[in-house]
Write a structure and sequence with these properties.
The complex is a heterodimer of chains A (about 130) and B (about 575). Chain A is of the alpha/beta class and about 130 residues long. Helix content of chain A is about 40%, strand content about 15%. Chain A has a single domain, classed as Cobalamin-binding domain (Rossmann fold, 3-Layer(aba) Sandwich), CATH 3.40.50. Among the domains of chain B are: about 55 residues, no CATH class; about 325 residues, Methylmalonyl-CoA mutase (TIM Barrel, Alpha-Beta Barrel). With about 575 residues, chain B is α/β, with parallel strands linked by helices. Classes of the chains: A alpha/beta (about 130), B alpha/beta (about 575). Chains A and B meet through helix 1 and helix 3 of A and helix 5 and helix 19 of B.
Chain lengths: ~130, ~575
C-alpha cells in the first residue's frame, strides 16, 4: 500500500515581506516528498487557518521575520483549536530570539527553527512528529 | 591596453611563458604536492574563476572607451573626479524602531558618534499604508522600524535635527509620496524651504513586487505616483533623490551578483521610460535617480559588480535615452552590507564579514554606506553593536588606506576581466527583459521572481551539501550559550500609538481633513499631479492610512502572482 504524502502549508502571516526562507523551505519540503501549499504574503491568521482546513494539511509551517511572532503564531494555533483542527502539527521559523521560544512552545508551536538551520532538520522533525 | 606584439610573447612557442607555468602547476599536482583544493573554483555567485589572470584576459580593453577617468563617461572608475580624496562616502546607518521618541534619540546618538546622514527605517504598517490601529497592524507596530501615522509623529521623529544640514534617506516605497510630504511639512515648520532639503526616498515599487513585498497599488498607478514625484521634485525639491532603484533586496532574496545588476537596471529603464511617457524631459529628472546595492562577501566580484553597473547605466542613459547631461549618466549609489550573510552562530564573526563587505563597497566607489550590526540575525541591533558597525566604516575610511586613491583595483587583470564578464551577462538579461516587454511585464509574469528563487535555492543546497562553507554554520561550529542583551521593542508600542492616533483625530480640524481627502480623491480619479494634494492632506494632519485608503479606493490593490 502506498502511504499518502504529508501535506504542508507554508504560511507567511502578517506584513512581513521576507519570503526567501519560506520559498526555500517550501521547495526543500517538496524535494523531500511532501505536498506543499504556499499561502503567499500578508495572510491574516484567519486566512491561514481557513487554508489549512480547506487544504486538509497535516502541518502548518509559519515563517516570520518581522518580530510579530509572539502575537501571530499563538493566534494561529488558537484559531486552529477553535475550528477543531488542533491536531495539525504547527512549526515556526525565522529571526526569533531564544528568549521567545519557550513561550511559543507553551502556546502550542511544536518547534521553532532559527537562522542557520539546515532544511533537513525541519524535514526530519515533521516526519517524526506528524500525526498521520 | 597592451602592446599586442608583447602580449603574443606570453603565448608564443619560443618564449613559452604560459605553457611553462602550466607545466609547473601540473608537475606539482603530479607529485601530490599542492594539488588543487577543489575541482572547480567559483565566485560567491557561482561563476567559474580561472587559476590565473594575465594581460591576455584584458587584451581587448580600450582604456579610454571602457574604463576612462573618474568623473567621466562611462564612469567605470567612479562618479567623482577625485572620489574619497575630496569627501568620504556618507556614513548612514539605517535605524528606527518603536515610536518616534525612541528613534529620535537613536538618531541623535548616531549623529553624535560621527554619522553623517540619517536613514529612517519605518515599521511594516507604515510601509504598507496602514495606521497603527488597523487590524492588519496587530503585532507589527514599531517592530522593524518606527511607526509614523501622521505629520504629528514626523514632528517628533526629527525634532531638534536641522534639516538644512542633515541629509535623510527614507526607506519607503508604496507610500513614499506621503512620507516625503510629512518631511517637507516638518521642514517648513523648522523654517527650511523644500529647495534646501537633501535626501532620498526609496520609492522603488518594482523591486517590492519582485523581492521585498511592501507593495500596495497595482503597477500602473504606482508608476504614476513615482513619475508625479519626479516631476514635483524637479520643480520644488531639486536636491532630493526621488528614487533609489534597489538591487539590495533582490540580492537579499537570493539573486546572484549579475542578476542584482541586471534586474535593478532593468527596473531603472522602466522608470525612465514611464517618466518620458509622462512627458518629462530625460535630463530634468535623470540626475536625481539614485541606486542602492548590496555588498556581499566575495570582495573582488562585488567591486567588479559596482564598476560594471556604472558602465552599463552610463551606456543606457546615453545610447538608449539620449541623455545630454553627464549627470544623467552617472550611477550614484548607496550600499548596505549583506544582511543575509550574517549568521546567528558566533555572531561576533559578523564584524569580520561586514569589514570585508565595507571594503567591497568602498573599493567599488559607493556614495554612502550602511554597515550591518553583528547581532542582526538575532534581533534588532543594540546601541553597542551599531557603534561597532559605524566604527568599522570609520576604520576603513581613516586607517586602511583604500580611500587615499581613486579606484585602486582598476587594472587588476582579474577585476577588469570580472567587470567585463558581469557587464556582458547583465546585458543578456536586460535584452531578454526588453524582449518580454520590460521589467513590469517580466515581474507580472513572475520571470524575475523565479530567477531569483532558483538562485536562492541553489545557494541553500550548496550550504547544506558543504560545497559552500559558512564559517560557524556548516564548518568550525562550537557549542554556544544563548546570546544576551538583545534589543527588545516595547510590546505596548502598538497600544500607545493607537492612543496617540485617537487623540490626534479628536483635536485636528475635521472639516479640513475631509476636504483634503475629497480633493485627493478627485485628483486620483483624474490625472492631476498627486504630490501637491498629498502635501495639503499631510499638513492638515490626515493620517497615512486615511490618505492610502483614498488611493486604494481609486487605484485598487496589487495581487501578486505566486511562483514557487
Amino acid at each position: 500500500m502506498v502511504e499518502s504524502k504529508i501535506r504542508v502549508l507554508v504560511a507567511k502571516p502578517g506584513l512581513d515581506g521576507h519570503d526567501r526562507g519560506a520559498k526555500v523551505i517550501a521547495r526543500a519540503f517538496r524535494d523531500a516528498g511532501f505536498e506543499v501549499i504556499y499561502t503567499g504574503l500578508r495572510q491574516t491568521p484567519e486566512q491561514i487557518v481557513a487554508a489549512a482546513i480547506q487544504e486538509d494539511v497535516d502541518v502548518v509551517a509559519i515563517s516570520l521575520l518581522s518580530g510579530a511572532h509572539n502575537t501571530l503564531m499563538p493566534k494561529i494555533v488558537n484559531l486552529l483549536k477553535e475550528k477543531g483542527a488542533g491536531d495539525k502539527l504547527v512549526i515556526g521559523g525565522g529571526v526569533i530570539p531564544d528568549d521567545d521560544i519557550p513561550g511559543l512552545k507553551a502556546a502550542g508551536i511544536a518547534e521553532v527553527f532559527t537562522p542557520g538551520t539546515p532544511t533537513s532538520v525541519p524535514i526530519e522533525f515533521i516526519k517524526a512528529n506528524v500525526k498521520k | 591596453m597592451y602592446d599586442k606584439e608583447k602580449l603574443k610573447q606570453l603565448e608564443s612557442a619560443e618564449e613559452n611563458y604560459m605553457s611553462r607555468w602550466q607545466k609547473n602547476v601540473e608537475k606539482l599536482a603530479a607529485q601530490g604536492k599542492s594539488a588543487e583544493r577543489k575541482g572547480k573554483f567559483v565566485t560567491g555567485s557561482g561563476a567559474s574563476v580561472n587559476q590565473l589572470y594575465t594581460p591576455l584576459d584584458v587584451a581587448d580593453i580600450d582604456y579610454l572607451e571602457n574604463i576612462g577617468f573618474p568623473g567621466q563617461y562611462p564612469f567605470t572608475r567612479g562618479v567623482q573626479p577625485n572620489m574619497y580624496r575630496g569627501r568620504l562616502w556618507t556614513m548612514r546607518q539605517y535605524a528606527g524602531f518603536s515610536n518616534a521618541e525612541e528613534s529620535n534619540a537613536r538618531y541623535k546618538y548616531l549623529l553624535e558618534q560621527g554619522q553623517t546622514g540619517l536613514s529612517i527605517a519605518f515599521d511594516l504598517p507604515t510601509q504598507i499604508g496602514y495606521d497603527s490601529d488597523h487590524p492588519m497592524a496587530e503585532g507589527e507596530v514599531g517592530k522593524v522600524g518606527v511607526a509614523i501615522d501622521s505629520l504629528a509623529d514626523m514632528e517628533i521623529l526629527i525634532d531638534g535635527i536641522p534639516l538644512d544640514k542633515v541629509s535623510t534617506s527614507m526607506t519607503i516605497n508604496a507610500p513614499a509620496a506621503i512620507l516625503l510630504a510629512f518631511y517637507i511639512a516638518v521642514a517648513e515648520k523648522q523654517g527650511v524651504t523644500p529647495d534646501k532639503l537633501n535626501g532620498t526616498i526609496q520609492n522603488d515599487i518594482l523591486k517590492e513586487y519582485a523581492a521585498r513585498g511592501t507593495y500596495i497599488f497595482p503597477p500602473a498607478p504606482s508608476m504614476r505616483l513615482i513619475t508625479d514625484i519626479f516631476e514635483f521634485c524637479s520643480k520644488f525639491v531639486p536636491n532630493w533623490n526621488t528614487i533609489s532603484i534597489s538591487g539590495y533586496h533582490i540580492r537579499e532574496a537570493g539573486s546572484t551578483a549579475v542578476q542584482e545588476v541586471a534586474f535593478t537596471l532593468a527596473n531603472g529603464i522602466a522608470y525612465v521610460d514611464a517618466a518620458i511617457k509622462a512627458g518629462l524631459d530625460v535630463d530634468t529628472f535623470a540626475g536625481r535617480l539614485s541606486f542602492f546595492f548590496n555588498a556581499h562577501n566575495d570582495l573582488l566580484e562585488e567591486v567588479a559588480k559596482f564598476r560594471a553597473a556604472r558602465r552599463i547605466w552610463a551606456k543606457i542613459m546615453k545610447e538608449r535615452f539620449k541623455a545630454k547631461k553627464e549627470r544623467s549618466m552617472m550611477l550614484r549609489f548607496h550600499t548596505q552590507t549583506a544582511g543575509s550573510t550574517l549568521t546567528a552562530q558566533q555572531p561576533d564573526n559578523n564584524i569580520v564579514r561586514v569589514t570585508i563587505q565595507t571594503l567591497a563597497a568602498v573599493l567599488g566607489g559607493t556614495q554612502s554606506l550602511h554597515t550591518n550590526s553583528r547581532d542582526e540575525a538575532l534581533a534588532l541591533p543594540t546601541e553597542e553593536s551599531v557603534r561597532i558597525a559605524l566604527r568599522t566604516q570609520q576604520i576603513v575610511a581613516y586607517e586602511s588606506g583604500v580611500a587615499e586613491t581613486v579606484d585602486p583595483l582598476a587594472g587588476s587583470y582579474y577585476v577588469e576581466a570580472l567587470t567585463n564578464r558581469i557587464e556582458k551577462e547583465a546585458w543578456e538579461y536586460i535584452y531578454k527583459i526588453d524582449q518580454m516587454g520590460g521589467a513590469v511585464k517580466a515581474i507580472e509574469q513572475g520571470y524575475i521572481q523565479k530567477e531569483i528563487q532558483d538562485a536562492a535555492y541553489e545557494y541553500q543546497k550548496e550550504i547544506e551539501s558543504g560545497k559552500r562553507i559558512v564559517v560557524g554554520v556548516n564548518k568550525f561550529q562550537i557549542e554556544e550559550k544563548a546570546p544576551e542583551g538583545l534589543l527588545k521593542v516595547d510590546p505596548n508600542v502598538g497600544i500607545l500609538q493607537a492612543k496617540k492616533l485617537a487623540e490626534l483625530k479628536a483635536k485636528r480640524d475635521g472639516i479640513a481633513v475631509q476636504n483634503a481627502l475629497d480633493e485627493l480623491r478627485a485628483g486620483a480619479k483624474g490625472d492631476a499631479n498627486l504630490m501637491p494634494l498629498i502635501l495639503k492632506a499631510a499638513k492638515v494632519y490626515c493620517t497615512e492610512g486615511e490618505i492610502c485608503d483614498v488611493l486604494r479606493e481609486i487605484f485598487g490593490e496589487y495581487t501578486p502572482i505566486q511562483v514557487l
